C-alpha cells in the first residue's frame, strides 16, 4: 500500500474472522469479520469529526490489483476460503452507506461485516461501524461484490 491508504491499513486491527451458521437459515453459513481502529486527526474533516470519505474508504478499502480486501468484502473471502466454493475473486459493484452520528478524536471504532448471500456471480453483505466508547452506530452499509466478466 502507498500514500494515505498505507497509514489507515496499518491502523486497522483484525479482531475476529469467523464462519458460523446463519441465524435465519441454520443450514447455511455466513462469514463475519470485525476490525477495529482508533480515530485520529488525519481522519478529520473541516469540522473536527471523522470525514465520510475516510469512513467510506475504511469500509471499502481494497487493492484492485491483488483483490486483497478488508472490511465490507472481507467476510465473503473468509467464507469462500472456509468452504472452497466460488473460487473466483470479485470486485465491488455497489456500496451504499448511511452515515449516522460522527466519530471524533480518540473514538474506538468497531467495523463489523457479515455476508448476506454468496452466489457464483454475485455476493452481498452488510457492514456496521460502531463507536465502541459511546455505543452508537456511526455508519451502516450494504454492498454487492461481483465476478468480472
Automatic annotation (TrEMBL):
It comes from the Eukaryota. InterPro entries: HotDog_dom_sf. This is Thioesterase domain-containing protein.
